[in-house]
Design a protein that fits this description.
By secondary structure, this protein is an alpha+beta fold. Helix 3 packs across helix 4.
Length: 179
């Protein structure tokens, strides 16, 4: 069962907290990729200068000003693609960066997408999805797509661990939320 749009249209910090443990799924023909979300970062463009929406709406970031439920995928420093789950209501510009996943389904294909080989050695398995650029590379996520569609979505999980969320408040001080 995939999450409904109402899940995404709430405050960015609430969505970030509740995304932990959910499962990101991508269907590609007969192939199925899935991974449990284990690390996230919340970005609020109204107050956070690191948010892509802080400078206002541009052609590049316009999808982030939609209502929650979209996946904003972008090229970071010309090297890695990263993905953000758009949150909140239309016109706000908030999103949650998916930083890491625990691979669940389609692991062999993830290995081929990430390392261009069939077997992993040493620490490679641990490094398969432990960073935001790695999440997109191993899953081949689609640009500017709604997460409520059939081929790419998030569904509930049963993960109880919570990670500390860090965000910048309006006065540029770091705030820590132990979730």
């Amino acid at each position: 069962m995939k999450l409904k749009r109402a899940f995404y249209t709430r405050d960015v910090l609430i969505v970030a907290n509740e995304l932990l443990g959910k499962v990101l799924v991508k269907k590609d023909g007969r192939k199925l990729f899935s991974g449990r979300i284990v690390e996230v970062e919340a970005y609020d463009g109204r107050t956070d200068q690191a948010a892509h929406t802080y400078i206002g709406k541009t052609k590049r970031n316009e999808i982030m000003f939609n209502e929650g439920g979209y996946l904003y995928v972008y090229l970071s420093y010309g090297v890695h693609y990263c993905c953000n789950v758009v949150t909140g209501t239309k016109g706000i510009g908030t999103a949650v960066l998916i930083r890491a996943l625990e691979p669940l389904e389609g692991v062999n294909m993830m290995i081929r997408n990430r390392f261009d080989k069939n077997k992993l050695v040493g620490k490679e398995l641990k490094q398969l999805t432990n960073g935001p650029g790695k999440v997109c590379k191993m899953r081949k996520l689609v640009f500017r797509k709604e997460l409520v569609l059939q081929n790419q979505f998030i569904c509930p999980g049963d993960f109880s661990l919570r990670i500390i969320l860090i965000y910048l408040d309006i006065d540029r001080t770091k705030k820590y939320i132990n979730c």
